[in-house]
Amino acid sequence: MVRRLGREELKSRLRANAPLVLPSILACDFGHLEREIELVEQAGAKALHLDVMDGRFVPNISFGSPSVEAARRATNLPLDVHLMIERPERFIEPFRAAGADGMTIHVEALADPRPVLEKIRSLGAWAGLALNPSTPLSAIEASLPYCDLVLVMSVMPGFGGQLFDATAIDKLRALRARNDLKAFLEVDGGITSETIGPCTEAGAELFAVGTAIFRDNDYGAAMRQLESAVARRATA
Ligand code: DX5
Ligand code: ZN
Question: 208 CA distance to ligand 2 centroid (A)?
């Protein structure tokens, strides 16, 4: 049995590897989940992004905790679980038990995210808070001290393969400019080798990427292309 790392250990491991491209398995071939995960691991992925959708918070259904568990069996990579669901407080324990290392909830789904963020942390996982393109930064302000990660959505959540919404850039920039920010900055939706550079410059350090990896015949080449676009901007 592999020892699961604690929240702080995982965060420092992510920090040491950042900036990082996280393949979003929503776009993978679920008939061959294990193989797909093995391929992105070989391609250099250091963590995976898992999109949970309930058909209520977003107009699409993806998968639930059994699939997170299947991913957990297939890899030791940290699993960054993005919960696009209503009343996420009901599912924190099951997703943690299934193997989530971090869980990101949506600010639009909750009147007060704080207790849920605290619950995630109390289970030893990192706690993330996401906001949609149409949601202003002021909506997450009060919750920032309880976040290990802020996920800036660059598409309306629900589907892979959508076009990048540039409002994410201003949000990333404004968050990065804060000197009290301790959370990781992640961006998700429409990330390609063109859009990843501006996100890096704006301060993002984790990038959830679905179609730009899984629609490529060569996941390694796709990862390298994304990573070199990041490296060019990070050193520019
Ligand atoms: C969208 C999801 C994303 C999605 C990204 O609702 O949260 O993580 O998988 O897919 P691409 O990279 O195709 O936009
Ligand atoms: Zn996502």
Answer: 6
Q: At what angle do helices 65-74 and 33-42 cross, to 10 degrees?
A: 50
Q: Residue 113: its pLDDT value, please?
A: 98
What's the rounded Cα separation, in Å, for the pair 161 and 113? Answer: 28
In the prediction, which pLDDT does 2 show?
Answer: 53
- The residue assigned the tokens 């629609």 is 215
- Rounded to whole angstroms, how far apart are CA atoms 232 and 236? 6
Determine the Cα–Cα distance for residues 51 and 210; give it in Å rounded to an integer.
10
Query: Does the pLDDT value for residue 4 go beyond 80?
Result: no
pLDDT in tens, 141-198: 999 999 999 999 999 999 999 999 999 999 999 999 999 999 999 999 999 999 999 9
Side chain identity at residue 155, one-letter code: V
| Gap from CA of 202 to ligand 1 centroid (Å) | 19
For residue 162, the ligand 1 atom closest to its alpha carbon is 14
Q: Looking at the chain, how many residues does it have?
A: 236
Q: Given this model, what pLDDT does residue 1 score?
A: 45
Closest CA to 171 of 210, 135, 127: 135
**Rounded (5°) CA angle 95-19-107:** 45
